[in-house]
Amino acid sequence: MKIHPSIYALWGLLLLAACSAADADDPAAVPQPGIAPKDGVFARRGEGSFVFTGYAPLKEKPVSLFYYIPTRGEVERMPVLFSMHGAERDATIQRDAWKYLAEAYGFVVLAPQYDKALYSENDYQFGGVFSAAGSGELNDPSRWTYRTVEALFDYFKNETGNTSATYSMFGHSAGGQFVHRFLLAMPGARVGRAVAANPGAWTFPYADGIAGADGKRYGWPCSVAATPFADAEHLSAFFTRELYVQLGTADTDENDASLPRDIPSQAQGPHRYARGRNFFAACRSAAKEAGLPLHFRLAEVEGVGHSTLRMVYGKPVVSNPSDTENRGANSAYHLLFE
Prior knowledge:
Elements: H1 5-18, E1 46-52, E2 63-69, E3 80-84, H2 91-105, E4 108-113, H3 121-124, H4 147-160, E5 167-172, H5 174-185, E6 191-197, E7 210-211, E8 217-218, H6 232-239, E9 242-248, H7 263-266, H8 272-290, E10 297-301, H9 308-313, H10 332-337
Parallel strand pairs: 3-4, 3-5, 5-6, 6-9, 9-10
Antiparallel strand pairs: 1-2, 2-4, 7-8
């Protein structure tokens, strides 16, 4: 069907309204055939961003979404990746770590940004499940931060006509905390494969809590004790997720300023590499004891420390991210898409 030129003019107006900073001479700013803009926020190919207020229970806490849509191909058929930022709360790091791979291999990157002014550590890393860490006071599930991811996926599909039934998920550092707790708390979430890379702390599958050096036992966010997730139904659903525990073998700095040092986090190990291995071992033991299948996989990236880009490419040195074929065997791209 031939599209009248006036339709392209209308798309251009929608683009200017949604992305006022875009360069009108930039070819990536021209909506491509196949996209039927509604709000217009995904009209731009390449990099883009907007503020999302479409999840009604948390409308007063908007989420900035940074995305990358390949400049070629049908958006309707592209796989979707959510990439979760670290404690620095900068989603452009996630988008930029993936954008060359997305362009080369034809998938969409959605990188939500949860600003510190609106989302505390409890709201982001711990999902807002409880009113405060250790409080024992559950928030209404509709107020969990995790629900915004599913809402964003629905919004993207509705805006673009994307037909993906599931999405992939990656998170580094604090984003890795978000990802694995998301899978635990959201058994119905439409996640296919997921990678939790180098979290500083994990939620161990201990129904009686994780033992601290002070002799006390601790629950959320470092264990499932006294949470809705401690029963066999939740743990079974969690263990059957296709989750990759991705660890940089050089992420061993015990003095890293961003490494969690509270008592239950310290009980997990001296550094991120040890904590990740201990979490994987604990899940393997818990699944075996309960007679449950475990679909988690341990994926170690040799020589890599605490770096999103290097975990995405699976290499200790990434000098040219546009060289998308220069990847290691346990790159996050390989784990999610190959």
